[in-house]
Amino acid sequence: MNLLSTENIVLFSFALIVIAFLYSSVGHGGASGYLALMTIFAFPVAIMKPSALLLNLFVSSISFFFYYRMNYFRPKLFYPFAIASIPAAFIGGFVTLDNAVYKIILGIVLVFAALRLFGIFNFKEKEAVTIHIPFALMIGFAIGLLSGMLGIGGGIILSPILLFLGWANIKESAAISSLFIFVNSFAGLMGFFLGGKTIPTESFYLVPIAVIGGVLGGFYGSGYFSNKTLKFVLGTVIIMASIKLIFP
Length: 248
Known about the structure:
Order of helices and strands: HHHHHHHHHH
Radius of gyration: 16 Å
Mean pLDDT: 84
Number of helices: 10
Structural class: mainly alpha
Number of strands: 0
Helix content: over 70%
C-alpha cells in the first residue's frame, strides 16, 4: 500500500480492524466506516468506492454466517428488499458521479451513519408487525441505488428502518442487513466492472486486515457483545470525515 507512510499504514490497519470488528458485530459490512477512514487518510476517490464495496463483500458475509448459525435470519423479510435493491445497486454501480458531488452526497450519508452510532436512530424493538411488501420494495430500490452509487451496502440505513417499522428485532435486523449488504455490494461491483472500471490493486491489500476484525466482530456480536465507547469514537471519526468531505 504505497499510498501511505509506514507509520500511517500501521495506524490505518489498526483502525480498519476496529471498524470491521464494530460493524460486523451489529451485522453491517462497514462501508461507511471504511469510506470515512479513507477520507481521513486522503485516499483518492477512485480507490474509495471499489475498496469499500470489496471489503463489504467479505465482512458482511462473515457477519451473516455468525448470525445465520444463531437462527436470526428471516428469509421472507429479506427477499422483498433484495429483489428491488439488487438491480438498483447494479445501476448505481454503473454510475460515476462527479468527484465533488460524490463527496457531498457521501458526507451527508456519513452524518446519518454517525448519528446511528451515537444512538439517535437506535429505535427500540416494537411488537412484531406484518411487512408491507410494496413499501419494502420501494425502500429496497432507494437504498440499493444509493448503495451502488456511493460504494456502501445500505445496512446502516436498512437496520433502523426495520426496527422503526417493527418488522424485525435487533438480532434479526442484523442478520437481514448483513446479507442485504452483501448482495448490494456484489451488484454494485458488477455495475462498476461493466462501466469499464477495475478494482485497484491497493484495495486487495485491505481485505485480510478487514477480515480479522470481521471474524471477531461477527463472533462476539451474534452473541452478547456490546461496546458503546467504540461506537462513540467511531461516530466521532465519521463526523470528522463527513465535514472534510462536505467542506474541503
